[in-house]
Every structure is written in C-alpha cells, then in structure tokens.
Amino acid sequence: MEPLEERVLDGNAIGGLLAEVFGTEMTTATGACGSCGAAGQVAELAVYRPGLGTVVRCRHCGNVLMVIVQIRGVACVDLQGLARLT
Ligand SMILES: [Zn+2]
Q: Could you say which of 10, 30, 36, 85 would form a disulfide bridge with 61 (CB–CB 3.0 to 4.6 Å)?
C-alpha cells in the first residue's frame, strides 16, 4: 500500500524539468503566489508528484502555483496560480 500522504519535495526536484521548459535555470527565480502574495524562490516551493504530473504549491496557503504535465514527451506548464515569476 502506498501511504496516503503525498511526499513533499522542493523546487530543486524539478529544477531540471523547469530548465527544459523555460530554457533557463528557474530554481533561483522568484515566484509570487497569486492567492496570498507570498514570494519565494522556486527552489523553496512545495512540489508534489502524485503520478500524472507535477504540482507546485505555495508553502504558505497551499494554492496551486504550477502544474506541469508531460504529454507525449512534451512538458505543458500551467502557471495560472502564480502572480508573477521573475
Ligand atoms: Zn500562497
């Protein structure tokens, strides 16, 4: 049996994936939560890998900041939860 609680990773776990998507190193970029406004380095965000993709959440309010899904080897990134990413 898999534990029900998902293991929480951090942004470093997806550094390679983000570099592939954005073409640059993203773990040192600063993301701001679109819900609570908390800003922090991508490396410090909470990352979950429930199986079908990667979900990045705000550590402060749990808002989903990014969803990354790989479809036929192409990574699709949804950044709608982010107020900004700089
Ligand atoms: Zn937040």
A: 36
